[in-house]
Amino acid sequence: MPFELPSLPYSQDALDPYISARTMSFHHGKHHAAYVNKLNELIKGSPMEKQTLEQIVRATANDVGKVAIFNNAAQAYNHEFFWHCLKPKGGGNPVGVLAERLNATFDSIEKFKEELKNAAVTQFGSGWAWLVLDQGNLKVVKTSNAMTPIAQNQTPLLTVDVWEHAYYLDYQNRRPDFVQAYLDNLVSWEYAAGNLEAALTRTTR
Ligand code: FE2
User: Fold this and answer.
1) Which of 35, 52, 94, 184 is disulfide-compatible with 98, CB 3.0–4.6 A?
2) Which pLDDT belongs to residue 164?
3) Distance from the alpha carbon of residue 107 to the mean position of ligand 1, in angstroms
4) How far is ligand 1, taken at its centre, from the CA of residue 109, in Å?
5) Any idea what the Cα angle at residue 158 is, between residues 32 and 7, rounded to 5°?
6) So what's the pLDDT on residue 205?
7) Under CATH, which architecture does the 96-204 domain have?
8) Ligand 1 centre from 186 Cα, in Å?
């Protein structure tokens, strides 16, 4: 099989009580796993078996005949990215270049957090809220279902999954509480900062 379910970068219970081990066992062990398995099934015997997840996402993004492949590849990509946006004892505030850029774009870190939370809470139905780099500018965007910034010529820096499977067992319908817990206790600013640094290095090379 070309793609395997990547391991979590921490133990299943590491984010408790903000995200329970039970949620992680379903979210990573069932939902994320299902996207990977389905993708393998859909691309079996095709040249896509030799491509990366990103290549498959970009190649199938606007192809009406390949919607199922896109959905599963994009969800596999988004989830792998999302796990790294979380860490035990996360939260607090970013530092360095990321903090400077957030302050310059959104006036303050607090205003950025409000904007990300607003995007997450107002995403109608399933989807994602993101901090992205778009033509050199930081932006908060939201995407529906499996849609991902890499299919829209944007570089993702940070995300929060707002599909119900991300929070329903722990928070039921209280999505705003889940997003607040993400910002206060889980978010890995280091991961976002690393993504920004890598993107800036690429553009100035
Ligand atoms: Fe998810």
Assistant:
1) 94
2) 97
3) 30
4) 26
5) 35
6) 57
7) 3-Layer(bab) Sandwich (3.55)
8) 16
**pLDDT value of residue 202:** 86
CA of 201 to the centre of ligand 1 (A): 30
Ligand 1 centre to CA of 204 (Å) is 33
Q: How many residues does the chain have?
A: 205
In which residue ranges of the chain is pLDDT below 50? none
Element (H, E) at 139: strand 137-144
How far CA 111 is from CA of 11, 74, 92, 142, in Å, comes to 32, 29, 14, 17
CA angle 124–192–85, rounded 5-degree value? 60
CATH number attached to the domain at 21-84: 1.10.287.990
Q: What is the pLDDT of residue 133?
A: 98
DSSP 38-65: HHHHHHTTSGGGGS-HHHHHHHHTT-GG
Tens digit of pLDDT for each residue in 16-28?
A: 999 999 999 999 9
> In Å, how far from its chain's centre is CA 141?
12
> Whole-model pTM?
0.97
